[in-house]
Fold each of these.
Amino acid sequence: MAFSVNTNAGAMAALQSLNATNRSMETTQSRITTGLNVASTKDDSAKYTVAQTLRGDLGKLGAVTSSLNNAKSVTDVAVAGAEQISDLVNQMKSKALEASDAGLDQESRKAISNDLVALKKQINTVIEGSNFNGTNLLKGTAAVGGGTPVAATGDKVSALQSIGGGDTLTIGNQALSEAAGTAFGASGTDADITNLALADDSTSTTTAAATGSGAAKTLGAKLDTFFDKVKTSLSELGAGSRQIDGQLAFNSNLSDVVTSGIGNLVDADLAKESASLQALQVQQQLGVQALSIANQAPQTLLSLFR
């Protein structure tokens, strides 16, 4: 082997090895710092593009979840209102039955009438107050067209179900405000209830409907019809709420699966990278020493000239 001071092959080889070790250390330190094995398309284009697509799907799932949560809030408010109305109607039915007793004196019937007016006002207040973010599923008008039921006019709630955006979950308006008006008169009109205070004189020439007990029976029948409507609304709202809860649970699980999938593609194994870093640090120190030794090699040529 020729000896030369112009070309130090050993030093060049040692330098190349040290540079390779430094590049590996930079890569390992980047993985440890970011926690990612694939942080850029320069690391692995295929995995990076797949991960980016999945991250986009996660964002869409977040939008779907937000839509479902809004629908859940609207529906839960409507369910709470309908359940309260159901309890109030049961109280009204009991008082209407009590007022239908022909042997009841007029003062007692008038007191019952006052209680019924208060309960009616409370029902109307519940319907008006069952509002979330400007949406009220209980306040509306029922509509029927051509023998085929048509959705009630009024607020309804729709929610996204999938990231495709094509499928929507819709819960229609229950139109309880109109049904309540049909049952015991519109808000501010209490004639159907105040008629309970009419006299119930058996010698009177008035019709049965114009007597206190007759008015109570008529009101009772209307309340039964209204209660059936409330039961139907409770069933529809409950089914819609359960469907929303189920979709939210599925979206949560799907989001976890997608997140895990992204992690499997791009996350770094920090235990492995830590061990690699330790080895590379030793290699770097040895490389520096090897380069130092290689750089001193030309010094040995000076002994030939002594």
Amino acid sequence: MYMDCPRIAFSALRGNSGKTLLTVGVVAKLHRDGKAVSPFKKGPDYIDAAWLALAADRSCYNLDAFLMEREALISSFTTHVRQSDCAIMEGNRGLFDGMDAHGSYSTAELAKMLQMPVVLIVDCSMATRTVAAMVLGCQHLDPEVAIKGVILNRVRGNRHESIVRRAVEENCGVSILGAVPRIKGSVFPERHMGLVPPQEHPGARKAVDKAVGIVEEFIDVKEVWKIALEAPPLDLIDSTEDRSQEGMQLMPRKRPRIGFIRDSAFWFYYPDNLEALERLGAEMVECNALLQDELPRLDALYIGGGFPETHAEALAANSGFRRSLNEAVEDGLPVYAECGGLMYLGRNLLIDGSTFPMTGVFPLTIELKRSPQGHGYTILEVDKPNPYFKVGEAICGHEFHYSRIVDLAEKEMPLAFKVRRGCGVDGRRDGLYYRNVLATYSHLHVLGKKEWAEGLFDLAISYGHKPGRKREDVPFNEGNLPAALNF
């Protein structure tokens, strides 16, 4: 079975080459021209995905062959593009950069998997004919990667552009889709974890407007669209096998209320993760740790990552919300937290000598450092009993954190995971747990670990039916039952 799907991937020779600026600009330009664009981000990045979502005015989904099972990845991609006119993916790092010397899980491998033509964005700073050598090298390193166009970025004047353009066209036989000069100032400001997220950028929409202006002036968007249209029909054989019974379970008569904190401090959520819980039958309740006086009545809580460090004062000032969360945990509320969520569950957050009280679920002090304490893909082995995962399971995830726990050893807190790859909380262990709470520095994706969603959902049902506990039941709509979790 095949599906026609105009699609294109933007990649580069390395990181910090201007991929996000130009991809956001193209996505927003096509969207404003009336096309429904499904944006995708290769890799586990939340921030670039947030900018792409803003540009397309719809959710951006991550695609990562390390975090996700292959069939689930293809199924997710095809599902999300069916109701759109095209798919645009921003790669990460350099085109062939992956986990090893073979480029495993690279943008190139993902582009081949999804039969996506590639546009290569090349930073031309301090180079002329060598740019052609680099493009030619990419073409020859793996001829199966369909490099269909090149965008010259950060060119210095007409003469520089003319030399580079001619060298690439004559030696590589690939179209130059545009030449973008070095842009004065920063359209998307950066900080330690990459770009400043749009949630914290007061002029986010103006930044997207500027990206559109750059694309309109310097890039041939009609040629980009033509390349997207030339993508071959996508083979759906790997994503259409009958998995209708996978993840099936008896639906409860009442919908459990699963909360997730989403504000400018906590917003690192893969859309697939939230949608998986909803498909299982949960009523998803959005919470705000900065503005709400207390945690609403819930059957479970999911706290994603984010930037609690940039909102430490406001989080500390909202004592009512912190206190109510702590009380709910003591009552047995299931809570699953990742990275920034872990930081919020500590007793104190230490930043440049200042101490900010957090929820105190774990009696730990967490300090923000000036250099990364963990960065990259992780592999965790579950070796201790906990409320969410069975002993012996493996979890593939991703971590990027500047914080560390300063008093872990003296507190002797239980940890559920052995770190096989990555850093975790101390280089050896990860997965703090207490009562029905589990907190980890690793982010996981439900397309690679569907048991996570099922475990949180089951705990929510159990807690919701705890004897003596009052519930605000939300019945299922009998005429529109949620679909079972299918990947």
